[in-house]
């Protein structure tokens, strides 16, 4: 009777195991696509912040180099002298003498009120601007774990549908495994008919000549390519140097 477990290496990479804390390949692909969607928004924020800093710099230069200060000083003295000692002279001195004035003025003004008063964004304001985007990126990273519950929630509300899905997946994997084994047999047969390369012959000779080098010159599984372990099974044909892992064997 054919069984699916243990899964092959190629089959394991296409499944999501809910109990694993590490991100798995299908989740990584979805997560990368979600993060790529955040890049246009990130570029837009960089453009807006750069434009804001550019405008602030231009206005600061205008404010610094266009400042003009005016200083105006003036003085005014009026004195009326009436000569003589007659009664009329005394009367004129008493009345016209009130016109004697002395006035000094000093006026300082500038165009500061007409100049722009730019205010640059602080570091905290920049941080608050990019904080929602950072939260969005964290949600893209953390959403893979709630997504693992979708199958369990659907199975709770639709158990018959879940059973149908499991049977469909089981039969699909059996068909894929049959096709995989058929294709791999053909590939191994074609590879066996080809003469081995110089590097392969040298490695095999070194492994036979110095057995202690086998831990460094490890072979790989002919089907899935996993590194050689003590559980690997060599081909029973003495003329064949192929090695297979436990699951492929």
Automatic annotation (TrEMBL):
Organism of provenance: Zosterops hypoxanthus
Protein's name in the database: DCST1 ligase
Residue ranges occupied by any E3 ubiquitin-protein ligase DCST1-like C-terminal domain in the UniProt entry: 219-249
Positions of transmembrane segments: 41-62, 126-145
InterPro entries linked: CSR-E3_Ligase_Protein, DC_STAMP-like, DCST1_C
Swiss-Prot/TrEMBL keywords: Ligase, Membrane, Transmembrane, Transmembrane helix
One Pfam family recorded for the sequence: DC_STAMP
GO cellular component, one term: membrane
Membrane-topology annotation of the record: Multi-pass membrane protein
Molecular function GO terms recorded: ligase activity
Domain spans labelled Dendritic cell-specific transmembrane protein-like: 1-170
Main location: membrane
């Amino acid at each position: 009777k054919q069984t699916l477990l243990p899964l092959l290496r190629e089959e394991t990479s296409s499944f999501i195991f809910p109990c694993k804390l590490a991100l798995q390949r299908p989740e990584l692909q979805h997560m990368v696509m979600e993060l790529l969607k955040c890049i246009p928004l990130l570029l837009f924020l960089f453009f807006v912040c750069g434009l804001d800093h550019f405008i602030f710099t231009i206005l600061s230069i205008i404010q610094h180099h266009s400042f003009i200060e005016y200083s105006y000083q003036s003085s005014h003295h009026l004195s009326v002298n009436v000569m003589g000692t007659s009664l009329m002279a005394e009367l004129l001195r008493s009345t016209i003498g009130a016109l004697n004035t002395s006035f000094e003025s000093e006026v300082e003004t500038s165009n500061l009120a007409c100049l722009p008063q730019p205010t640059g964004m602080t570091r905290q304001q920049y941080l608050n601007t990019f904080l929602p985007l950072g939260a969005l990126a964290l949600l893209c990273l953390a959403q893979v774990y709630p997504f693992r519950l979708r199958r369990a929630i659907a199975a709770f509300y639709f158990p018959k549908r879940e059973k149908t899905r499991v049977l469909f997946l089981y039969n699909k994997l059996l068909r894929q495994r049959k096709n995989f084994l058929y294709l791999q047999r053909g590939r191994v047969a074609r590879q066996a008919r080809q003469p081995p390369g110089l590097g392969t012959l040298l490695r095999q000779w070194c492994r036979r000549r110095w057995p202690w080098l086998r831990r460094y010159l490890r072979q790989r599984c002919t089907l899935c390519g996993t590194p050689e372990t003590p559980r690997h099974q060599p081909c029973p044909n003495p003329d064949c140097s192929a090695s297979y892992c436990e699951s492929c064997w």
